[in-house]
């Protein structure tokens, strides 16, 4: 997990940004009932395998990644340890021009 935050729109959720070993990032979310399990299972900066999740089209005015899809973590999602070691933070800042063009 690269980053996480709580959101309170329409019920409390844990939102996070996950990355794969190639640097691809996806916005992931879980409901309050899964929040503490996910926070324990996906510590920031640690690599994990995540299985049995759903993927849907990202919606809303703000998308924290460029990917048009969002991952939803549920009670059926399995999180397990990984041997992968990679200290890259996968920081990808938008240029000023891109921000201005979006508005």
UniProtKB/TrEMBL annotation:
Pfam families: DUF223. Residues 3-82 form the Replication protein A 70 kDa DNA-binding subunit B/D first OB fold domain. Gene3D superfamilies: Nucleic acid-binding proteins (2.40.50.140). This is Replication protein A 70 kDa DNA-binding subunit B/D first OB fold domain-containing protein. It comes from Brassica carinata. The lineage of its organism: Eukaryota, Viridiplantae, Streptophyta, Embryophyta, Tracheophyta.
């Amino acid at each position: 997990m690269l980053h996480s935050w709580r959101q309170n729109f329409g019920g409390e959720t844990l939102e996070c940004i996950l990355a794969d070993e190639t640097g691809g990032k996806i916005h992931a979310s879980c409901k309050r009932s899964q929040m503490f399990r996910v926070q324990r299972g996906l510590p920031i900066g640690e690599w994990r395998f995540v299985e049995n999740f759903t993927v849907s089209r990202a919606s809303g005015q703000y998308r924290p990644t460029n990917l048009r899809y969002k991952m939803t973590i549920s009670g059926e999602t399995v999180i397990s340890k990984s041997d992968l070691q990679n200290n890259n933070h996968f920081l990808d800042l938008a240029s000023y021009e891109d921000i201005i063009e979006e508005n």
